[in-house]
Amino acid sequence: MIRECTMIQESKLSPERAVLREVVRAGDYWLREIKAGQTLRMLDLEGNQAADTLFYSAADPSERYSAVDTIREQGNVYLTVGSELRSNRNRVMLEITADTCGRHDTLGGACATESNTVRYALEKRCMHACRDSWMLAIAEHPELGLTKRDITHNINFFMNVPVTEQGGLTFADGISAPGKYVEMLARMDVIVLISNCPQLNNPCNAYNPTPIELLVWD
Amino acid sequence: MKTCLYTYTVPGGSHWSLRLRRGLCLKLTDLEGDANLGMLFYNPEDLLERYNAPDTLKCQHTFKLTAGHCLYSDMGRIFCSIIQDDLGWHETVCGNSHADTVAQRWGMRDYQTDRNQWHQNGNDSFLVELAKYGLNGRDMAANVNWFSKVAADEKGDMHLVANHSKPGNSVTLRFEMDTLVIMHTCPHPLNRSESYPRKSVKVEIFVADPVAEDDFCKSSCEENQRGFANNHLYYLGQEVRA
Question: Which of A109, A213, B43, B122 could form a disulfide with B96 if both were Cys (CB 3.0 to 4.6 A apart)?
């Protein structure tokens, strides 16, 4: 049923021609600048991995990915081929150009030690979480001028969070699988900040965090 | 709830902010029908702690906000609980109207001609109020749009439901933390009315009844019990105001 309303579009880009290929281990962050005109592919190596992603304008990081502007302007809560990823100034930052997964979430946000206490158990406070990865990223990259106020509402690539017509929202089993990927064309110079999700408490990454690979083409 | 301590009617197309102490209730009433009230929340003791819509939605497994739900900060604490609601659905995923879209739909914001009947937009309204506390666009998060229902179908297509809020409909928030509340009464960003919708909202402040052990919001799910436990830890050592 879910697959009927998803969009599958394969890429014509050859991995041999990529200018960058990097594997991000589970629980690590990845931070890179992608230039306008370059294409970024996120590859789910082992399946059902969630890649929690934020984008910033490289020219002015106070302009950043905005989930609300993105879904409002496209009139749909899911991201897939054709989705324009918009900034908090309602400008297009990137566009999804290929997707073999079918849809991606931008409602569920990122896991945090604090929200884990609410969602699962107070005893789970000290488990590693996406927002902690981002805190380390901004601490290790002071040259970007990013602080906690810039760590906001992200995209969860490969994650399946269905919304019902009655207003329900669930974290469902992933629809991703080994080898599935999503590709996006940068329409401005962007800083990409990914947390390769370490969550062990829900099915968003099948209770088993695994590596992802990132490929970039000129 | 006891006697109303304070009341103010926010005119349509306007913005306001105030600090509310824990133990107070804020009742919002749509006076004319089809109002929209955008709202953001911050911890005045640490402005980096702010309303987090994704955390709020996922921990309560909901896409909409209504009675029984709690509004969470990014730090796992509860700013406020929805203790009363006539509408059954308020949305928190569509953000705000921007100056360019408002100008396209209803004409430019023009104080010279329109004075305070100008076409104010939600985004700029938040920016103005946030600046009063040293905050700016970097501090803006996904906001609540009270009185507005945005539903999604099976494919994920979203639409603003017309005539959702009727004259006299209200929603009441009970504050579980001291909170800086930022609000505007600008049109919902998906509103396509022929003329600029200018809808006023009555705001009333009451003293809340103490939160009982079997409180509706606290006991509506285990997640909220843990949220209240996090609030308890935050105020540990301080006496809870009656």
Answer: B122
